[in-house]
Every structure is written in structure tokens, then in C-alpha cells.
Amino acid sequence: MTTIDLETPTLTRKDFVSDQEVRWCPGCGDYSILAQMQKVLPDLGIRRENIVFISGIGCSSRFPYYMNTYGIHSIHGRAPTLATGLAISNPDLSIWVITGDGDGLSIGGNHLIHAIRRNANINIILFNNRVYGLTKGQFSPTSRQGMRTKSSPMGSIEQPLEPLSLALSAGATFVARTIDTNPNHLGETLTRAAAHKGTSLVEVYQNCLIFNPQEWTDYHNRQTRDDHMLFLEDGQPMVFGVNQDQGIIVRDLQPEIVKLGNGISEDDLLVHDATSESPTLAYILSRLRHPAVMGVLREVEGPTYAEGLMHQVAEAKAKKGQSDLLSLYQESDLWEVK
Amino acid sequence: MSEVKEKEPSLRELDAIVIRFAGDSGDGMQLTGTQFTNTSAVLGNDISTFPDFPAEIRAPAGTMAGVSGFQVMFSREDILTPGDAPQVLVAMNPAALKKNLPDLERGGFIIVNTDSFNRQNLRKADYDDNPLEDDSLKGYRVYKVPLTSLNREALKDVEGLTTKEKDRSQNLFALGITFWIFDRPLEMTLEWIEKKFAGKPAVIEANQKALRMGYYFGENTEIFRQRFRISPADLPAGTYRKLTGNEATALGLVTAAVKMGKPLFYGSYPITPASDILHFLAKLRHFDVRTFQAEDEIAAMGSVIGAAFGGALAVTGTSGPGIALKSEAMNLAVVLELPMVIIDVQRGGPSTGLPTKTEQADLLQVLFGRNGESPMPVVAPQSPTDCFDLAIEAVRLAIRGMTPVIFLSEGYLANSSEPWRIIDPDDIPAIDVHHPAPRYGTNGKEPFLPYQRDPVTLARPWAIPGTAGLEYRVGGLSKAPLTGNVSYDPYDHEKMVKDRAEKVARLADIIPEQEVFGPEKAELLVLSWGGTYGAARSAVRRAQKDGKSVAHTHLRYLNPFPANLEEILSRYDQILVPELNKGQMAFLLQGTFAIDVLSYPKLHARPFRINEILAKINEVLD
User: Fold this and answer.
1) Quick check: A321 and B286 CB within 8 A?
2) How many CB atoms neighbour CB A41 within 10 A?
3) H or E stretch covering A134
4) What would the pLDDT profile of A203-229 be if each residue is shown by its tens digit?
5) A337–B238 CB contact, under 8 Å
6) Does domain B241-427 have CATH number 3.30.565.10?
7) pLDDT band at B2 (very low <50, low <70, confident <90, very high)
8) CB contact, 8 Å: A334 with chain B?
9) Structural domain boundaries in chain B
10) Do B312 and A90 touch (CB under 8 A)?
11) For A55, what's the count of Cα atoms within 13 Å in the CB-facing half-sphere?
């Protein structure tokens, strides 16, 4: 989050469109994310010159080229490290990391964990299409077990990672999930992530039409999508389903799907509270697959890395006074040669 | 103890002497050596130190693997190395004796703690018989001192400490003895003990008493027949302090940041022998030093790129294995064309190698260890205090060329120390930094060109986020000139590769001319680089005194080379390149200038001795 500047010039979507031609495959979910980003940024009250997009490698990582802001298309998996260094050198920026399931969870998994645990002031948008796109279709760390790809012709034998569970385990202060085909929800989620101070991790279910086109069919289809996704709202019971007649309860620390009626009412269901100090409920929700939980799972306050560091700078200056090189040189046993 | 002595021991004046303190890792030998050094420095001697310790934090007590040593040379003359061979060895146990005896000068002094020469310790050092009781030490002057029991006796009235705790002071008892032999005052160390152990009166008492009693032991017993005095050196007037290479590097970086008017961002992952730079800088928050201990080497490098993009003075420090991990990100820094300094404090390799030992074997790695054409300037300090000057210089080159610069230090320089005449920071010129100004209302007009190069330096503008109207994108993909937009065009690619190379080459315009020590023409030119400076210069000095036709030149700028280097090399019949690797600089010179070079490699992961290079000079010239 950056300080809102009341004198920020009025910006429009067009101000955030760069002169570069967008080169994703036709129908790629990335287009929707780009469009929503360009749509919500003008309303955030942040000057364009204070916004930086940093990506790694992969289809999603072309994103910064298309944003008329500052940007770096860096190397595979390392975007959070550049973002952290930038946030420390210049704590006033609004920094966005664009990554994918391969870039962020495979080669860059380590950096993702550490950026989150430090609560660096960055927004990480993780495009999850559960497949490697740019290298043409191998399974990724989020691919379903059994998924057949060029590198797993007999089916993947690996257990997939759940990005939000990982983030919560690392102590994330903001964790959310949204989907490319629901532009309103996507835009709202990005807006809330931007407003969060500290690391925000947003997983976007994103469609790869070329290499994993069936992955989200049930989440896109009007007939089935409401059975597959539960949209969280703060203070509201967790209800979902095409007929809004199903809900979630927790029994013996296990989530259960229940049908409303037959003595079960909305009052029996879990009520969402993203600001809960304990991440336990958010963790349970993050692991649900049917339905997948959409929206902001966790949103709590905590000092950012740069705040902690700059606090130490201020404290040291107050204690030791104005920095003076000569005194520093002399902080040792000295002797005179005449 | 008797007040009247039959005969005063004789006091001999010497020009220089080399002492090595050796004991178990837990015996406090680094501390003992440091205290001896500090006192000698304050007395006005020129000093040079060489700590030599194992990678294991605490190897099993009494074993050869656990021996830790600290060598110091102190002199009345200007010295450039910590000395070839010690003349005095203080050995706290059999393993320390065994490990260090081969280095000791024939006829040298040995002070041993006889209490530690028991069967168990002798066995750990693989001694079949006690060397103190047979002929093994013939030809040396051996002083057998029961240090442990003397120290226990001396501290018997100190209350509140166990015997084990009292034994920890025995290094100070030994130090007291050496202070007496070399006629040094105790005051500095007494004061230091008081500060170091503030709040622990029993420990202060024990340590101060041990030091004093060691001194009195020397004074009152007659086993030491000889004392020595080394007069102050004739150093340039001024205020001095002692600096290790790592301290000097850190001070240089802070100075450069102040001279730029920028915060210093230091992103690093702990690694021997570079970690001390991180430790030193972490204490300097009041200088707006923003240290960042990254989760790994790659993250450290990434963070530095981010900080440089944001406009800070961005620096990382590591050793060879870390450079290997950082290489991909270093390459990104090359194509993003951002200014930063990458410190490689070299250690013995390959792989994990010899973490606490020194080597110069990363030269070709830092020059060529990246995919594609990836030119990077390289500077290498020649002495511990030169790290200060060259760190500032590295920053200057980075800013001028908008390029990452390698600062190629060495474990030997990092941990060794020498006197540093404190300079007035006001005498150090400012480092000019230019960021392009914001541009308002430019929509639809001329776009900002992030790769529009300065016609003289070929550097691109350092536009930083937060500047209106300059929003631009960069990345690791090949780029078009001027715009920096992604381009796969073959001619764009060629131009960018050539421009980056030429930009680095043009740094030679501001690099000082290479100098030669000795005749303009001679039969032999010794060319050294890095920490080999001291031994090479001293050896050439001696050879010149012997009338040999030899000159010396020392390289601090390894890429680009100084503009006049080729001309210098052409003036000498033969060129000898001593280096702590298998001949990497020799290979580089041969490849760059198509000339014959005599390579003199040393692969012991220890610095050159003067005598080794002198012998080689004589061998070549005879």
C-alpha cells in the first residue's frame, strides 16, 4: 500500500496501456487479468510513476511489458527478490510481482516463502493454470496427480502444491483467490490486495487454452460454476451452490459440506472472518477443492520489512546522531605518527 | 620471586620479527594475536597480520584439524606482507607445534605449554614420542613453560570462577610472556579486557592477572635469555588505525554511499570469508545502511538488482560458490545496465573447497562465467587497506558505466590487517550521480528512451521509479537500442552486444595508467595482481638490490586493463606472473595480447612468500 495522494492526476485505463503489442495466445486468461489490472489501477489513488511491475519467466511474466508503468521482466522465479530489494531501497512504491505456478512455486518457491514471511510490501499475483505454458505443456507443481503431459505420459505422480496453504504457512498477512472469468471479482480482489500493507498473495485461476484447456471448465460453465466455487464475504455464512443451498461447517477440525434444510440453517454454517488473528480457518478453507473458496481468505495487519528496517535506521540515527565519516573511521584504537 | 637478578637478559634491536601464535580453536589464539598486533601498532611499528584458522568452528580439541594460528610481522620498516617464516612460535599444544613447526625459521624460538604435552594430546597430534624430550626440536630454541599450572597458580585467589574458566585465561598468560620478551606495554590489553568483559569482574580480574603474571614470569625467571626491541617504523605522519581487508571494504562502501548522497543497500547471504562485511555494515544503520540478509545467494543478487533499479547504491558480497549461484542474476544486471558492486572474497575452490583459506582462482569465473557475451569490469585490491580505495573506485566505475562491477578480493586480504592512515573524508571527491528529471504531460509526445546512451561513456540513463513521465520496462530478453523494447532483430542484438562491450572498454579512459616499479626496460617483468602484491614487490625489491634486471608491475584493474598495459609488456624480455591459481592471469594475458608469459602458479591456498618469488626470479634470470 502506498500513501494516497489527493493530488494524483486523474488517470484512465488508457494511461496504463503500453505501446507494446500483447502477444498471448488468443483466448488466454492472461488477457482478462491484464484488462482488470489496467481498469482498477487508475482508481487506486497511486501515481503511475510510483507503480512497478516485476515478473520472472513464463507466459504470465510478459505482463510488465504491457503495463505503462515501471517494470522489470526478470529471471525465472526471482521476481520476489528484486521486488524485496526495490521495496527496501524505495519503500514508497506500489510493487506488483506477476508470477505463475511454475515460476512462483517451482523454481522460485523459496523466494516466495521468504518474501511472504518478511511481509515485504509487495502484491504477488500468481496466475495458476496448473501447467507449464511457455515450455509447451509439461506438468507444474500445481498439476493434478495423474495429469498426462509430454513429460508425464503415464500421469504425474507428484502431489500438487496448494499455493494459498503454502502462503498461510509462511505467515502471509493477505491471501486471496479469484478467477480470470469473473472480471468483477478479479478487479475487486486486486483492489483489496493493492490496499493491503505488506505482502499480498492473490492466486488467480487462469485458463491455458492450449495446454490445459479442461482444467477450469467446471469453474467457467454457468451451469456448474456455482457448485465449484464458494465466494467468501466477510461476516457472511459460507453458502454456495447453483441453488445456494449448500454450506460449510467444521466438525472435529474437518470441513464438511452440508445441505441446507432438514434442521440445518445458515446459522449453523461457518461465518467468514478474514481478519481473524489465527490463520487456522483460512488454512482449512485454502485446502478445500470442492468447492474452491474464492475471495480474501486472510487479511491481517503486520509491520512490513521496510518499516522494520527504516525504524531501525531512525532509531540508530536518534541514538548515534548524524552520521559522520571521520568519526566512523576513528572508531578503533588510534595512534599518532609524528 | 626474586627481585635481584644475576644477569639482565640482553636486549637486542631488530628491524622486524614474525611471531605466530598457535593453539586449539578454543584457545583464543586469534584474540591473542590481535592484542599483540594492536599494541605493536600503537607503539608505531608497521604491522601486517595473517590469521589462519580452520573451517570447523570447534574441531575436536587437541587435534591437528582444530589448530588455529595468527601470524603477525611487526617492523621498523615499511612492510608489505605478514612475513615468510615466523621466528617465534607460541604453541599451546602438541598439534599446534606439529602443524606449525615446518614453517618456523631454523634457529627460531618456540614457547610451548608443557602442561598440554600429555599422552592424550600427543596421540591426537600423532606424536609417538614427546618431541620435547627427544631430538625433534634440535636446532630451535625451546622454552618449556608449564602455562596451565602457572596460570592456575597465579589465579588461585580469584574467586567465583571454576578451574576450567580460569584456564581460559592462559592465552593471556602466554601473551604476557611475549609482551615481556618483545618489550611491549600491557596497558592497552588491560584496558581492552576491562571493556570486553564489562560487568564480569571475576573474568576481568582473571584475565588481567594472567596477563600481568605472564609478564612477571618473563621478567623474574631466567629462562628467557634474550629480549628484543623493534623501534617504531618511519611511517608518514598522521593518525592511524588498524584495518582488515573486509573492514576496509565496508568502510569504502559507506564512504561511497555518503559521497553519492544515497542509501547503501547491502544484500548478502552469509558465506566465509565475506560475512564480516555484512556484520560490519549491519552496525551502521545510522548511515542509512540497509543491510538485507537474503534467503540465499540468488536472492541476495536479485535484491541488489531491485535496489539498483530503485536508485540506491546497491552492493552484494560473497565468495566463489556464491558467485556461481549468482551468475544468472549477474547476467540480468549486465543487460539491465544498472550500477552495482559485486564483491567476491575468493577462497580455495573448486566447489566448497577450502572456506577459510585463500586463493585467486575465481578470476576467469568472474570474467567469463556467464552465458552469452557478458562483459563486466573487474577490480582487485592489492592489500587490506587498498580495499578501502578500490571499493570507492568500484562504485565510481559502476556509476560511470551503468554496469555491475566485480570487486575481486581474497580471503587473505579480507582477514589480514595493516595500519591505515586515516584520511579526511572531505578529501575524497564526490561521486556524481545523475537521474533524468521527470517529464510531465508527455503523453503522445517523444517517448523516454531508456537505452539512449551517453555519447562519451555509452552509459544509459539511470531513470528511477517515482520519476513521472519516464515509466519504462526492461528485461532479460534481447533488446532494441534506444527503446529497450524486446527485439529479436539480428542487427539490434549485435549492436547491443557491441555497445555493452564498448561501454566497459571505455572505462579505461578513466582508469589510471599502469605503473612500473623499477627500470623501464629489463630482462624480466614480474606482473602480479590482488593480494600477491606484497610478496611480489618485496621479492623484486630484493632482487633489484642484488643487481638483477627486473621490474614489477601490479594490476588493480583487471577488466578493462589500463590502456598502456600492452605497451609496458612489450618492453620486457620475459614476463613472470605469480598467482594463487593454475595460471589464470597468465592465460588471460596470453589470450589478450598474444604474448609469451611465464606462469608461476601456487596451489597451496596460502599466500606467496617473498622467498618463493625471489627464488623464481633468480631461477628465471640465471
Assistant:
1) yes
2) 25
3) none
4) 999 999 999 999 999 999 999 999 999
5) yes
6) no
7) very low
8) yes
9) 10-230, 241-427, 435-510, 522-621
10) yes
11) 28
Nearest CB to B241 within list A73, A79, A332:
A332
Other C-beta atoms within 10 Å of B191: how many? 12
- Give, in words, the CATH class of B10-230: alpha beta
Taking only the tens place, the pLDDT of each residue in B410-449 is 999 999 999 999 999 999 999 999 999 999 875 556 789 9
Strands annotated E in B439-588: 473-475, 522-529, 550-555, 557-559, 572-579
Note whether A52 contacts B: Cβ–Cβ < 8 A.
yes
Nearest Cα of chain B lies from the Cα of A224 at a distance, in angstroms, of 41
B111-120 pLDDT, tens digit per residue, is 999 999 999 9
DSSP run (H or E) holding B10: strand B10-14
What residue type is assigned to position A198 of the chain? Answer: G
- Is the per-residue pLDDT at B507 higher than 70? yes
Q: What is the pLDDT of residue B8?
A: 66
Contact A93 B314 (CB under 8 A): no
Note the pLDDT of residue B5.
46
* Confidence (pLDDT) at B140: 95
> Can B10-230 and B241-427 be said to share one CATH topology?
no
| B329 to A110: CB separation less than 8 angstroms, yes or no | no
Q: Is the dihedral of CA B36, B38, B43, B44 positive or negative?
A: positive
Contact B75, B233 (CB under 8 A): yes
* Beta strands B16-24; B67-75: pairing state: antiparallel
Residue B241: closest CA among chain A residues belongs to which residue? Answer: A334
Return the minimum-mean-pLDDT range out of A97-101, A132-136, B552-556. A132-136
Torsion of CA A148, A151, A154, A158, to 10 degrees: -80
CB of B91 within 8 A of CB of B140? no
Question: Among residues 59-98 of chain A, which lie with CB inside 8 Å of chain B?
Answer: 64-65, 67-75, 78-90, 92-93
User: What are the domain boundaries of chain A?
Assistant: 13-221
Q: Per mean pLDDT, which range of A292-296, B9-13, B389-393, B515-519 is the poorest?
A: B9-13
The domain made up of A13-221 has a fold known as: Rossmann fold (3.40.50)
Position A193, amino acid? A
CB B297 within 8 A of CB A332: no
* Residue B496, C-beta contacts closer than 8 angstroms, at least 6 positions apart: B335, B451, B478, B479, B481
H or E stretch covering A179: strand A174-179
- The shortest C-alpha distance from B474 to chain A (Å) reads 5
Nearest CA in chain A to B442: A15
For residues A45 and A9, the answer to whether their CB atoms sit within 8 Å is no
What is the three-state SS of B100-144?
A: HHHHCCCCCEEEEEHHHCCHHHHHHCCCCCCCCCCHHHCCCEEEE
Instruction: Assign domain B522-621 one CATH number from 3.40.50.920, 3.40.1190.10, 3.80.30.20, 3.40.50.300.
Output: 3.40.50.920
Chain A's closest residue to B464, CA to CA, is A70
User: b vs e for B520-535, b when ≥16 Cβ sit within 10 Å of the residue's Cβ?
Assistant: eebebbbbbbbbbbbb
The C-alpha cell that represents A88 in the structure block: 527496501
- Describe the crossing of helices B297-309 and A79-89 by its angle, rounded to 10 degrees: 50
In the predicted structure, residue B342 carries a pLDDT above the cut 50? yes
Asked whether the beta carbons of residue A338 and residue B237 sit closer than 8 angstroms, the reply is yes
Question: What pLDDT was estimated at residue B187?
Answer: 94
Give residue-wise pLDDT tens across range B605-621: 999 999 999 999 999 99
ipTM above 0.90, yes or no: yes
Rg over CA atoms, chain A: 22
d(CA B442, CA B427): 42
B465-482 mean pLDDT: 96
Q: Taking Cα atoms as reference points, which of B349, B292, B284, B285 lies closest to residue B317? A: B292
